[in-house]
Design a protein that fits this description.
60s Ribosomal Protein L30, Chain: A, alpha/beta, 732 residues, 4 domains, FAD/NAD(P)-binding domain, disordered C terminus
């Protein structure tokens, strides 16, 4: 909200939705929803003008000032803040295999759902064991008991036990521990103190004195540790492996590295690993990062020695603890709930922002004066292993005998802020045109526009873009042979792709045959999702799913379709499914019937369309709706058919007897493929798409009749579909 001139903030996050640990017990108890306890990092970064990199740091090179990420080039930094939290400390044999760890919290939800599903299948009381008797373990034990009790029959009340190595609620006063023991007792939770767990087996844990505690589910809530890659960084660490920081939250032996939260330990003022400590380190961390970027010395701060802890008991009550003082009551739960919700609201309900981060004002040249510097380009090319071509024109490879060259070009503003991912999406999008016509990609020329900036910053961005392009193009055997760079207001990437295809082949759009099943290889919805994201109305998990699909190139899918005898194929991009299908029908002289319920949608796409979030190209695509009988603009599933796609999937006509096997094979390869319709005889002068509900389902050797198949001109005959002899389909 207060951007520094000339500074770009990049957030690297393993999870695009980050949970608030203070609300975790309430989530386990069923008191909060997923969205209520998570911060949407994509929305937050768009609001702040920051760049979001969806990935997990696995190391760093301090000499080169780089953060290491798996499967991609490192990221350069000028100043680094490591705020990566803690990881499970499961040194007890068997714990990693059989226990559900509370950390990392982002992965707990799915595993907790697995515990609940297991409990629901039992016809006896579910036995849950929690190891760890601190505030987190106690809260989770009470929350889990509540959730299990509400889902089980009265005679199958859960059996919950809590094991702790030392006394219950160590680090808090005796009075707070007394309140907690009474809360556990009221709920029938047995607390076993001074139990040292030495072994975890399937269905049981073993203590140091030989006792065996049987269980159906095991939650691990002991003290967490630090990331295992930190010792390789050379940073000064504590004996427990956490980053040792000074009073300014700066690493003891590196002035360019800061750390806060669970991963850091203030040497002169050590504090517990608790969410309230991390939250209160946020403002001084922000202030000192800003000061260092301004060339000033950071300022020290002294954290509170004692902080108020509010421990919820998941029964409408809470325990307040500060030093020796403690209190318990219903009003304390209302206070805790209000504090947590108010804190989350700051980051979930963001105010409208005007303007953009201030940048140095300078006149920038246009024309060829706006190209990136030669040294920047050469260094970027060398970094990603591409040849530094001295010539201004790259030679094209000669096609094989019986082949002819084909070309396709695409260019657009990057839909994501990560330049590596943007390069991958652009390559997958551009290759789609070649895959659709059965061409093999040979070579590509890139056009990359980058915002003006300091040479190292521009070079780093260009390197990431080129690496993303190279990776996806390389999967298709396509060489990145050259291109052009220029300055622009926002990241823009284009590709001209050259390929070779059999000389007798056609464009692919004119090959549909009556009776073919229409198979779509990717779900729809990228247009509406990223339109919603521009308004802060798309959830980060929706965008992450869309981004994953957009990076998936269609070469393998095209091979499957060709081997199955697909004679008509196109890639679904800017004109949407309805527009590209209409082009195919026009070229092939046929009509089609689409099962609107069978068309796959990306997570969140239908919600965004229902809310009126559409791409700027969507109104232009609406002209195709006049070719669709039964089109209802109030139906999100109908509007989905007009949604413009970036790096969309292939739409192909597959022989009827091959369709099921093709869809199954595509899904084995990781494609969210579906059979979405059938090709019908032409009923009029212009092509028509009829929207229907429902497809026929096979049952043994008999295929059920459906309006969709009848309208396409088919009847059931012993499990086979045979076209009517009539040249026209029944009117819808």
């Amino acid at each position: 909200m207060k951007p520094e001139p000339g500074v770009r903030v990049t957030l690297v996050a393993r999870d695009v939705e980050t949970p608030y640990s203070g609300m975790l017990p309430g989530r386990i108890a069923g008191l909060y929803t997923h969205d209520e306890m998570h911060l949407d990092l994509d929305r937050l970064c768009r609001f702040a003008g920051a760049r979001l990199i969806h990935g997990e740091a696995v190391g760093m090179d301090r000499k080169r000032r780089e953060v290491l990420l798996p499967g991609r080039l490192p990221l350069h930094y000028d100043v680094l803040s490591l705020d990566i939290g803690s990881t499970p400390r499961v040194s007890v044999p068997g714990a990693a295999e059989h226990a559900v760890c509370l950390k990392p919290i982002a992965r707990l939800e799915k595993r907790w759902d697995g515990v609940l599903n297991h409990a629901a299948r039992l016809d006896r009381p579910f036995r849950l064991l929690i190891v760890g008797g601190g505030a987190a373990g106690a809260e989770v034990a009470l929350a889990a008991e509540r959730r299990l009790r509400t889902m089980r029959p009265p005679n199958h009340a859960p059996e919950v036990r809590l094991l702790t190595r030392g006394p219950l609620l160590a680090g808090h006063g005796r009075r707070a521990a007394g309140y907690l023991r009474r809360a556990l007792s009221r709920r029938g939770i047995a607390a076993h103190e001074h139990v040292d767990v030495v072994q975890v087996d399937a269905g049981a844990v073993v203590s140091g004195d030989g006792r065996r505690f049987s269980c159906d589910g095991l939650l691990w809530a002991t003290q967490a540790g630090a990331a295992d890659w930190l010792p390789q960084t050379g940073l000064a660490l504590t004996d427990e492996g956490f980053i040792a920081v000074d009073d300014c939250l700066r690493a003891l032996n590196d002035d360019l590295v800061f750390a806060a939260g669970d991963v850091a330990t203030m040497i002169d003022h050590p504090r517990p690993k608790a969410g309230v400590v991390a939250v209160r380190q946020g403002p001084p961390l922000e202030r000192n990062l800003r000061r260092v970027l301004q060339g000033l010395e950071p300022k020290p701060f002294r954290p509170q020695r004692r902080m108020l802890a509010l421990i919820g008991t998941s029964d409408g009550r809470a325990i307040a603890s500060r030093g020796r003082w403690a209190l318990e009551g219903r009003w304390l739960w209302r206070l805790k709930d209000a504090i947590d919700r108010r804190w989350m609201k700051q980051y979930q309900h963001l105010p409208a922002m005007t303007g953009t981060p201030a940048e140095p004002t300078a006149m920038r040249c246009a024309g060829c004066g706006g190209k990136l510097g030669a040294d920047v380009l050469r260094r970027a090319l060398r970094t990603v292993g591409l040849p530094d071509i001295p010539a201004d024109a790259a030679p094209l490879p000669s096609p094989a005998p019986g082949e002819r060259l084909v070309q396709s070009v695409d260019q657009f503003r990057a839909p994501v802020s990560d330049p590596w991912v943007a390069g991958r999406i652009t390559a997958a999008h551009a290759l789609g045109d070649l895959h659709a016509v059965g061409a093999r990609a040979l070579t590509a020329l890139a056009v990359v526009g980058l915002p003006a900036g300091a040479d190292p910053v521009v070079e780093a961005d260009l390197t990431q873009v080129l690496a993303g392009l190279r990776d996806v193009l390389g999967e298709s055997g396509c060489a990145l042979s050259g291109g052009h760079t220029f300055e622009t207001d926002s990241l823009t990437i284009g590709l001209t792709v050259t390929g070779a295809m059999p000389a007798g082949s056609t464009s692919g759009k004119d090959g549909l045959r009556v009776g073919d099943r229409l198979v779509l290889t990717k779900p729809l919805g990228t247009g509406t999702l990223f339109a919603a994201a521009m308004h802060g109305a798309a959830k980060a998990r929706w965008l992450a799913a869309a981004t994953d699909v957009m990076q998936r190139q269609s070469g393998a899918a095209a091979t499957v379709l060709r081997e199955a005898g697909a004679a008509g194929c196109t890639d679904v991009t800017g004109f949407g499914l309805l527009g590209h299908l209409t082009e195919m029908l026009e070229a092939s002289g046929v009509d089609a019937i689409i099962d609107r319920a069978a068309v796959p949608a990306l997570p969140g796409a239908l919600e965004c369309l229902a809310a009126g979030r559409v791409s700027t190209l969507h109104p232009a695509n609406a002209r195709f709706a006049v070719r669709a009988a039964g089109f209802d603009p109030a139906d999100p599933r109908h509007m989905l058919l007009l949604d413009p796609q970036t790096a969309g999937g292939l739409l192909a006509g597959v022989p009827a007897d091959e369709a099921a096997a093709v869809v199954a094979r595509l899904r084995e390869l990781g494609h969210d493929a579906a059979e979405v319709g059938v090709v019908a005889p032409r009923a009029g002068a212009a092509p028509r798409v009829t929207l229907r509900e429902g497809m026929a389902e096979a049952d043994g050797n008999r295929t059920h009749r459906s309006p969709l198949r009848r309208a396409a001109g088919f009847e059931d005959q012993g499990g086979h579909q045979t076209p009517f002899t009539s040249p026209t389909a029944p009117a819808p």
